[in-house]
């Protein structure tokens, strides 16, 4: 039995989860499920990174206590994952006691072995990045990430003797091509190693920052956030004494994007070498999602909310799109048009049609049961050959993180089966009374569909299970023989009942942008098109604060947690019916895309929905709690 460990980056809690976080975590979940399907024992880790300047600044900006802030944002990640069918085995937070103890143990160990020293350092420091920059790294004298001039800082700090391990690391990378992949990132790291990297400053004086883990050998300093964060990968496994660490560490695979290549490819392995620990098995690096051609950013207001997309198109379709669209390692562009186009072509047309027509024919011609498979002819054998090859390719590509190629291979089988049905024409066989041939054709097709559904399970778990149920196949993960699927074609039991229809992928439309159509006669004025309604963005959020408007008796200032990093303020004319204290904690529906405007000097970002009646104003709330920011549809 093989032990397989997969991790995502632990995400900073200064932003709510967005498309980028969702992608890495969905990839990790799919990989974890693929390995489960292959019979491995799997441990899948994700979590949040909660120390450092950035987090303190974000909490201050939101006007809340840091601990409260990190608890809340970390929870928003934990709440989101199940909605995206992400089943992690553990969720690590760097503020957890066992993580802190593990970081201190690690530091003490490296300190005692002589690889941590104290020295004065003067350099250009970027607060945003929480690190010193060399002149060479700056662009026009500014930090390339934050576009701000770094500050000249002189202070005494602790340094990790990283340089001592760089040669060993370079040799390891050269001798183990699979250590860092895709190749372009392996080359990038080898190029970095040719530069003068220097040692790594791993402390921050408490006079400047207290939100961190104290150095065990000098309580006046806290640990540099990256040194603290990287250790999550082993603290979560219970390093040093836990059995899980012993079992899983040697099968460790880290998934990250290109932005954090250096800490994972250089800091982390040299830290492991200094602590006398084996290196992880593989670092898998992906590119960035842009929105259209534009970088996704809070200031541009184009951050994609993964929950909203999953709710609109279905979580399975969303996960499929992400894996099929991005060629792992390269950047990809996210647009609703691209998603709809791929959805309609691959899922509604190719896969959806295959399911709906084959199941309908099985009902019409075979009483709704999987038929017996008769003798195979040349045509059928071709299907088996195409199928086995496609599935073997899928498995190899998936194992190597080539998800888009893996899915393209699987779709060769989907399309081949559609053609096979067209050519075999079961309707004509039925008419001609060729029952044996008809049964064989439908069996071959149904079994191919079972294989497709099974291989799609890592990508769209609940949809795949629904497809398997429609085929009358009892889903049992432990009984799956993934390798065997590439050489035999007889998994379905003749006689099992199949569903009479399938409509898992109804066609989608792109939401129309731009102004609503110009109304014509009186009647058209009264009625609106569905597209007009769709222009309104209605959401549900949780009231986190409410207080009287300082200049207007009938207005309240209501702050609503809408899933964004900072709650939005809405000025609501509900003071006649509602006490501020009765609102806090309540979920309310509101118009989210109303143009912000000032009401008696206070900015209002939206409008709360309410019903006026004789007994006062009733607020619209969901029947059960929903994640803040959920879309009303
Ligand atoms: N806390 C550090 C990681 C520490 S790991 C020991 C951090 N956090 S982060 O919140 O900034 O997350 C960065 C990661 O989020 C990226 O490496 C990637 O996994 C994901 N993404 C964030 N934006 C992204 C895109 N636009 N596109 C794809 N993924 C991106 O860095």
Can you tell me about this structure?
The protein has 21 helices and 26 strands. β21 and β22 form a beta hairpin. Helices cover 41% and strands 21% of the residues. The chain has 3 domains: 284 residues, HUPs (Rossmann fold); 153 residues, Isoleucyl-tRNA Synthetase, Domain 1 (Orthogonal Bundle); 102 residues, OB fold (Dihydrolipoamide Acetyltransferase, E2P). With 633 residues, the chain is an alpha+beta fold. It has a 6-stranded parallel β-sheet with strand order 3-2-1-12-13-7, with helices on both faces. α6 crosses α10, α12 packs across α13 and α13 packs parallel to α15. About 2% of the residues have low confidence. The site of 5'-O-[(L-methionyl)-sulphamoyl]adenosine has 19 residues, from β1, α1, α7 and β12.
Describe the secondary structure blueprint for this structure:
Layout: E1 3-12, H1 19-37, E2 41-49, H2 53-62, H3 66-83, E3 90-93, H4 97-112, E4 116-126, E5 131-133, E6 151-160, H5 166-175, E7 180-181, H6 183-193, E8 200-201, E9 203-205, E10 214-215, E11 218-223, H7 225-230, H8 232-235, H9 243-248, E12 252-257, H10 261-274, E13 282-286, E14 289-291, E15 294-295, H11 306-313, H12 315-325, E16 332-334, H13 336-366, H14 378-399, H15 403-424, H16 426-431, H17 435-456, H18 461-470, H19 522-526, H20 530-534, E17 538-549, E18 552-561, E19 568-572, H21 580-583, E20 587-591, E21 597-599, E22 602-604, E23 607-608, E24 610-613, E25 616-619, E26 630-631
Parallel strand pairs: 1-2, 1-12, 2-3, 7-13, 12-13, 14-16
Antiparallel strand pairs: 4-5, 4-6, 6-8, 9-11, 10-11, 14-15, 17-18, 17-20, 17-26, 18-19, 20-23, 21-22, 24-25
Helix pairs in contact: 6-10, 11-12, 12-13, 13-15, 13-17, 14-15, 14-17, 15-17, 17-18
Bound molecules: 5'-O-[(L-methionyl)-sulphamoyl]adenosine.
5'-O-[(L-methionyl)-sulphamoyl]adenosine (MSP) is lined by residues 9-12, 20-21, 23-24, 49, 229-230, 232, 256-257, 259-260, 288-289, 296.
């Amino acid at each position: 039995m093989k032990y397989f460990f997969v991790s995502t980056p632990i995400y900073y809690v200064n932003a709510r989860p967005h498309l980028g976080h969702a992608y890495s975590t969905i990839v990790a979940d799919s990989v974890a499920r693929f390995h489960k399907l292959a019979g491995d024992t799997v441990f899948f880790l994700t979590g949040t990174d909660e120390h450092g300047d950035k987090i303190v600044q974000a909490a201050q900006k939101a006007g809340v206590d840091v601990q409260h802030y990190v608890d809340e944002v970390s929870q928003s990640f934990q709440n989101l994952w199940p909605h995206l069918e992400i089943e992690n085995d553990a969720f690590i937070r760097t503020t957890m006691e066992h993580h802190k103890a593990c970081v201190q143990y690690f530091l003490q160990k490296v300190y005692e072995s002589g690889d941590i020293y104290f020295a004065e350092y003067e350099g250009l420091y970027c607060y945003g990045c929480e690190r010193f920059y060399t002149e060479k790294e700056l662009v026009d004298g500014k930090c390339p990430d934050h576009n701000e001039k770094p500050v000249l800082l002189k202070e005494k700090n602790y340094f990790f003797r990283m340089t001592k391990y760089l040669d060993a690391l370079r040799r390891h990378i050269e001798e183990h091509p699979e250590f860092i992949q895709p190749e372009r990132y392996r080359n990038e790291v080898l190029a970095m190693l040719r530069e003068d990297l220097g040692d790594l400053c791993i402390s921050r004086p408490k006079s400047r920052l207290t939100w961190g883990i104290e150095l065990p050998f000098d309580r006046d300093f806290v640990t540099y956030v990256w040194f603290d964060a990287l250790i999550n990968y082993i603290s979560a496994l219970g390093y040093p004494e836990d059995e899980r660490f012993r079992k899983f560490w040697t099968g460790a695979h880290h998934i990250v994007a290109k932005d954090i290549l250096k800490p994972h490819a250089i800091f982390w392995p040299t830290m492991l070498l200094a602590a006398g620990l084996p290196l992880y098995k593989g670092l898998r690096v992906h590119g960035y999602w842009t929105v259209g051609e534009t970088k996704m950013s809070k200031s541009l207001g184009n951050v994609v909310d993964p929950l909203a997309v999953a709710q609109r198109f279905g979580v399975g379709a969303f996960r499929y799109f992400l894996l099929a669209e991005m060629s792992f390692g390269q950047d990809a562009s996210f647009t609703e048009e691209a998603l709809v186009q791929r959805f309609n072509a691959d899922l509604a047309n190719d896969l959806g049609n295959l399911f709906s027509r084959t199941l309908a024919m099985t009902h019409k011609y075979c009483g709704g049961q999987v038929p017996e498979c008769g003798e195979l002819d040349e045509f059928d054998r071709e299907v088996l050959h195409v199928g086995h090859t496609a599935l073997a390719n899928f498995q190899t590509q998936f194992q190597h993180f080539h998800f888009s190629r893996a899915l393209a291979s699987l779709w060769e089988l989907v399309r081949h089966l559609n053609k096979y049905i067209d050519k075999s024409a079961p309707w004509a066989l039925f008419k001609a009374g060729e029952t044996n041939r008809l049964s064989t054709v439908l069996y071959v097709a149904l079994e191919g569909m079972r294989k497709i559904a099974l291989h799609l399970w890592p990508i769209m778990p609940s949809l795949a299970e629904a497809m398997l149920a429609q085929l009358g196949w009892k889903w049992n993960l432990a009984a799956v023989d993934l390798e065997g699927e590439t050489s035999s074609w007889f998994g379905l039991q003749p006689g099992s009942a199949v569903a009479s229809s399938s409509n898992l992928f109804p066609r989608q439309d792109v939401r129309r942008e731009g102004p609503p159509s110009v109304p014509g006669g009186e009647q058209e004025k009264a009625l609106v098109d569905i597209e007009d309604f769709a222009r309104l963005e209605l959401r549900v959020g949780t009231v986190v604060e409410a207080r009287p408007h300082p200049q207007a008796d009938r207005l309240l200032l209501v702050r609503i947690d809408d899933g964004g990093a900072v709650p939005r303020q809405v000025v609501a004319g509900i003071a006649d019916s509602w006490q501020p204290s009765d609102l806090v904690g309540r979920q309310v529906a509101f118009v989210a895309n109303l143009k912000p405007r000032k009401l008696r000097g206070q900015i209002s970002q939206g409008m709360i929905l309410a019903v006026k009646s004789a007994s006062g104003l009733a607020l619209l709330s969901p029947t059960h709690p929903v994640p803040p920011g959920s879309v009303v549809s």
